[in-house]
Amino acid sequence: MSATSGIGLSEELVSDFSRAVTSRDVRFLKISIRNETLVSDGTFPSQASLESDLAKLNTLLEDNIPAYVLVRLDDPPTEWLSVHYVPDTAKVRDKMLYASTRNTLTKGLGSTHFTDTIFATSKDDVTPAAYAAHKRHVAAPAPMSAREKEMADVLAAEKQAGGGAYGSSRARQNHIGTGVGLKWSPDVEDAVKELATADNRLVTITIDPSSETAVLKGTEDSTADELGDKLPPSDPTFAFFAWSPAGRQRQIVFIYSCPSSSPIKHRMLYSSGSSSVYQAAKALLPPNLLAGRKIETSDPKELNDSLLQAELAHSNNTSPTPTPGVTEETKSFARPRGPARRYVH
Asked: Which segments of the chain belong to CATH 3.40.20.10?
């Protein structure tokens, strides 16, 4: 916070501004610092619109001498713009004096009158074009970092995803309303349904971010050991794999692959849609055919038969295996002993 200069407002300045506020026919009130006091340096009437009058403002300013100019706005006319004009060519002492006094000026006249401020270092900063550029800058959203921009895009996508229950005749929304409300095209549904009678068949699905639609990327034959080479190494993907392992019941495995190198916007979009895609597929397939455990990976290269065996075997172990030679005993609750009885002799 800059220190104040200790300079006060003259009675004439306070009176001139009060009349300008009441009359509403004053466009500019120029203010200067003289003899350690803020004084009125002239009022100038409204002649046309604000933009037209601003074209004349530079004639009221001097090239090397700072000044304040209070400008009445058109909409609404009760509000004022405070222009702090401190040219680069001004003396250093004057620059410091005007910089440390500007808050005193607006507070002394009533801060509620002033809804905008312009800091000008040349006459070119107070032209109609410069004022228009200033208003565009004020109205523009605050600048964001690349990460903040990605997060904002994701939030906007999630908000937009809560639309109606049905899309067009060629795109139906998913059956379960959890997570991002993805729409499923008929070819995606058909490919997933066909897995019910297929063996060693892989269906890959991607999301079109612009339309929030599940898109069929491809269907192909594959073994479990080939999965790592058939999923994209740098883009998120949903996959359904019809798997018939030796000695085990045939299952359809849901795989959510999300490489860490993929854009954060895509990672969040796929993460939000993962549950709804799984539930929608579960509704399309015969009961108990879709594996209860979802396979999630950030490196598709690690997918192989051994990993699937281990993951799905883990999901089937719903109860802990007892340790050999150890029997469990059910003991009744042992009530704690109370304090020892004391005898008084």
From this structure: 8-139, 159-314
Do the beta carbons of residue 225 and residue 272 sit within 8 Å?
A: no
Contact in structure between 47 and 141 (CB atoms under 8 Å):
no
- pTM exceeding 0.70: no
Based on the number of CB atoms within 10 Å of its own CB, is 121 exposed (0-12), middle (13-18) or buried (19 or more)? middle
Tell me the pairing of strands 67-72 and 295-297: unpaired
- Which amino acid is it at 69? V
Structure-token match 């401020």, residue found: 117
* CATH code given to domain 8-139: 3.40.20.10
Question: Span 159-314: which CATH code?
Answer: 3.40.20.10
Strand-pair partners of 118:
83
Give bridge partners of residue 269 from the DSSP assignment. Answer: none
Residues of the chain scoring pLDDT < 70: 1-5, 147, 150-151, 154-181, 314-345
Peptide bond into 76 cis (omega under 30): yes
- Cα 304 to Cα 179, 198, 290: the distances in Å are 28, 19, 18
Helices (H), the chain: 11-23, 50-54, 92-99, 102-109, 128-139, 146-160, 186-194, 227-230, 264-284, 305-316
Q: pLDDT digit string (tens) for 286-312?
A: 988 998 888 999 899 999 988 888 888
pLDDT at 315: 58
Q: Nearest-CA neighbor of 68 among 11, 97, 30?
A: 30
